[in-house]
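Hi C.,

You asked whether I'd gotten around to modeling the 287-residue construct. I have! Everything is below, sequence then structure, no commentary in between.
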Amino acid sequence: MRWRPSFQLLFVCLLSGLWGCGSPERQPVADRLSVFVTIPPQAEFVERVGGTRVQVNIMVPVGAEPHTHEPAPQQLVLLEGAHLYARVGSGIAFERAWMDRIRAVNPGMHVVDCAAGIDLVEGDPHIWLSPLLARHMADRIREGLSRIDPEHAAHYRLGYEQYAADLAELDAVIRRSLQEANIRRFMVYHPAWGYFARDYGLEQLTVEHEGKEPTAQRLARVVQAMQETRIGAVFVSPQFDQRSARALAAETGAQVLSVDPLPRHYLQGMREFATALISSERDSHDE
């Protein structure tokens, strides 16, 4: 399926210079497959697997919140020329709200479910925050690209294998570092790191409960737990309001550390989280 400019796309570009329709990073490029993903980490998966064969667009851009984000009309227009959509598939709120409409925009677009075959935890869509599951997601993307472009299947296989090796190395480094630091638990405001905790034998303690701000009684229990376990940091997501977390930190003397659960550069973002986790544990024991 080749991308063809449409009158609708040209009209939107004339009306909306703010969004950047003229940007070469947004428009489909000749001789490349136009691939859309839901969240920023998936863009790295596609780029590493597809290399120069793909052009990636992200529906929930960097800094946006997948629970509330709505696609711009221009994004839906660009979807008309997409060859493949890689959905997370784990119940992320954006996809629950928009996936049917995304499919309707381009019925001929191949859709890959990156979560197919994963043992999901009910209520936790954050599968990408496990390097092991990220490798599975990248393999699903490889399968999708190979299906619509079988002529270059070997290219996608090589890209996947190289990226899988980097993910395996990341997993080994994180596992070894956490064991050496003897970390057992950590505190987060928004419960995004459940799959990460499951993989590495950690306990994720959360401030937010069932997607709601904590009650006074819950905050009191959280304060007590932090004091008893000597947890020295509360990890917050930049996509969420941090005022309650900072109030909690002021009460307990803990640090507030911002870590992005939607890193555009996935390998780097995961290393940064592991480093922050280990550093906060050391700081708490030094006090």
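If it helps when you're writing up: The chain has ten helices and eight strands.

Thanks,
B.
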